[in-house]
Amino acid sequence: MQTKENHFIKNIEIKNFKCFEDFKAEGFGRVNLIGGKNNVGKTAFMEACYLGENTPEEDFFYEDYEVEKLKKVYTVLEFHRDSSNFLLSDIEVAYKFTESKFVINDILRSSDTDFSIDESSKIELIKNINFISILDIINEQIINAIDEIKLLNKEDEFNHLLKEIFKIDKIDVIRNQVMVKNGVSYLLLSEYGDGIKHFLSIVLSLYLNENKIIYLDEIENGIHYTNYDRLWEIILSISKQQNVQVFATTHSKECIESYARVAKKLEDEEITFIELGKNKEDEIKAMVYPYEWFIDEVEQNHEVRGW
């Protein structure tokens, strides 16, 4: 069993990955919100963390495959594990990306030239939902996750949260479809907006990734700003309960302010805000705000959404 925080990413160094050439940042907490201007690399930052954290050593390979089939990634990640440091250094990682888009289901991990993947591996990736984007949530992920919630005896707690925010009674899987119960009627989840699906995936990932790390891309998408505070209360509370480290991105000033407000209300000092920006040389740099500094900046209405 993982002990508290021994799996958390504390520092990162990224070399030659997408928009990052030589990047370093340190001092991450349990919950980390990433802000910055459009196209500054917020999602790419999380992808680099995900790749380094989830790629087993045996999946690193060096053979010279066809260049057009590969996405070459160089990452250096440093983890704090029981006071010792674990370092993946200067290793070339090769991946094929479906439509050049990062989706965990579409990563094909194989040293075979055809980049095939066996069904058992694909099922496990779908089941372990921990990189969440509103554009990439698929029905199979939610179906499997709801089954797991039942096995963990978290179904009632989970449905209580949904009823509180979306005024619905229950989410269930019926005839291999995700169904929403409202009163006496059941409707397909697909008949509701993306916001409820996004919220479902966020909360499910928190419950199902105990002692792990999750990545929430554009966390505010589809969720009304009046629900931001409750969403952050859920994320901060469940992540602490489950010992889950969270990385999330946002474009929204209101979402950033809500994050600060709720962290202060809960007196949760295990949070950071990561501001990405570009210097005069057009290099991406990070400003990592720990709890007190971040709260102070937001309360003084200072701009923290990149430069």
Describe this structure in words.
The chain is an alpha/beta fold. The chain folds into 2 domains: 1-128 and 211-307, Rossmann fold, CATH 3.40.50; 130-208. It contains 8 helices and 13 strands. The strands form 3 sheets. A 6-stranded mixed sheet has the order 6-10-11-3-12-13, sandwiched between helices. Strands 2-1-4-5 form a 4-stranded antiparallel sheet, covered by helices on one side. Strand 10 (213-217), helix 6 and strand 11 form a beta-alpha-beta unit. Helix 3 (139-151) packs across helix 5 and helix 6 packs across helix 7 (253-266). The longest helix is centred in the middle third of the chain and has 15 residues, at 194-208. The protein is globular and about 60 Å long. Residues 57-74 and 79-128 have low confidence and may be disordered.
Secondary structure elements and pairings:
Blueprint: E1 9-17, E2 20-26, E3 31-36, H1 42-54, E4 71-81, E5 84-95, H2 119-127, E6 131-133, H3 139-151, H4 155-166, E7 170-174, E8 177-182, E9 185-188, H5 194-208, E10 213-217, H6 228-242, E11 245-249, H7 253-266, E12 271-278, E13 284-290, H8 291-299
Parallel strand pairs: 3-11, 3-12, 6-10, 10-11
Antiparallel strand pairs: 1-2, 1-4, 4-5, 7-8, 8-9, 12-13
Helix pairs in contact: 3-5, 5-6, 6-7, 7-8
